[in-house]
Amino acid sequence: MKEKIKGFIYGCVVTSLITGSVAYAANPTSIEVYFKDLKYKIDGLDKTPSEGQGFIYEGTTYVPLRFIGESLGKNVEWDGDTETIWVGKREGRFTGLTSLKYARTDGEVWTDEKPGTIEIAGTKYKNGIRAMVKNSSSSDGKASIDYNLNGNYKRLTALVGMDDASRNVKALGIIKVIGDGKELKVISKLIGGDNPINVDVDVTGVLKLQIVFEVDYDKNYNWAEILWVDFLEPKLFE
């Protein structure tokens, strides 16, 4: 027999969506649900929640998030201060680099692309810094963007790579992370069509951060080629 639960406070329950769309309420909302004796198989193995049960609401199946996460070998944590659910590695609090107001740019650099329009190796990304670089009479094959960090951060992470707009060019891309005039990280030989590379840089005490985008040409490359190089999902950790 189904156990009918009334006055269930949806806003206080952490669940994981299995199928269908998410039902969301900005404020706590009372709903009426029916718990069901659901069976779970994770990678072919039978699994049973140690606490809590799944239920179906308006055609969508919900199950305890902690049960699913830990069954897949992922730690699940709840941060009450920020009302954030962490599944797997917990990064800590961070500030998106592109949410800061940049100090200056030199060359063709953009931070205001529409979310999901920056693409590397067929994957679209929410935000980032996109630069166009080329070698010509009016350009030295370089572009850059500066931020005033004022020593407030310790770590910078990002994904870097050649934008799909340049996936067929022969020239290679270079990205340099510079702190207070000193090279902190150089990522070279970026090739169109390759997956992005993870970057993790110590920026402890850095007052001024500069991201430099360059083109790496040799005699076999077409000097008229234009490269689009991306610095994606950049995060600053305190």
Automatic annotation (TrEMBL):
Domain of life: Bacteria
SMART domains in the cross-refs: NPCBM
Protein name according to UniProt: Glycosyl hydrolase family 98 putative carbohydrate-binding module domain-containing protein
Extent of the signal sequence: 1-25
Keywords in alphabetical order: Signal
Record domain Glycosyl hydrolase family 98 putative carbohydrate-binding module: where: 88-238
InterPro entries reported in the protein's UniProt record: Cu_amine_oxidase-like_N, Glyco_hyd_98_carb-bd
